[in-house]
Amino acid sequence: MLPALTGAAVLRISLFSDLYLRYVQPGLRPYLIVSGAVLVLLALCTAVAGRRAADGEGHADHADHADHGEHGEHGHGEHGHAHGPGGPRVAWLLALPALALLLFPPPALGSYSAEREAAQRAAQGVGAFPALPAGDPVDLTLAEFGSRAIYDSERSLKGRTVRLTGFVTHGDDGTWYVTRLLVSCCAADATTGKVEIRSAEAPPAGTWVTVTGTWHPEGALGTDAAWPPVLDATRVRHVEQPANPYEKR
């Protein structure tokens, strides 16, 4: 029963929906589908084997009782015991996590996780970056914006209008940030990327927004004073959470 529930839950989030993107990178989808199918197939094979074994045991007991009847015996003693359940009832508690994943998949990591995560750098060392695409506004990930703002010796963000998408987090001093969780493989290795937003009123924490604005230089390149990078907002637009809420680190 437990493998069947687990397999069904994995198939639900990976084969029949995009919910798996809350937990792992898109490239892992085929492995999740195969794993879920194997678990369901294993559960079916186990159920069929158990049914055949039970039928065989039933036929053997019937023949044994018939043999005892011919000799005037009545099946008392060692053949009179009752078969109990396959295991302790408390073992069914192991099915609860799989059932919860099947019926109520947990949400993606959000503002609470981001606020508890230490600031991470998206690049190492100061240097030149490739030129940005022509035309404004230019869509950037938070990792791309942060790398250029903190480490780009050519100051490629200067004078450009950029557009960033993420969810809102609040600082203790009234500041607010567009935030995104960055992953290499899955949600377990998530770290935080964020950009401080100025010149705009803060939406509620956890709200997904797309912010358009210009880079506001702060601190010397490659120093702690340049973190987090700052954007002077000209427009803040509420948006739906994307199917994949994470950025690839």
Automatic annotation (TrEMBL):
Membrane-spanning parts: 32-50
Compositional bias (Basic and acidic residues): 56-81
Keyword Transmembrane part of the UniProt annotation: yes
Keywords of the record: Membrane, Transmembrane, Transmembrane helix
Key word Transmembrane helix present: yes
Domain DUF1980: 149-246
Pfam family name, one: DUF1980_C
Region (Disordered): 56-84
Protein name (database record): TIGR03943 family protein
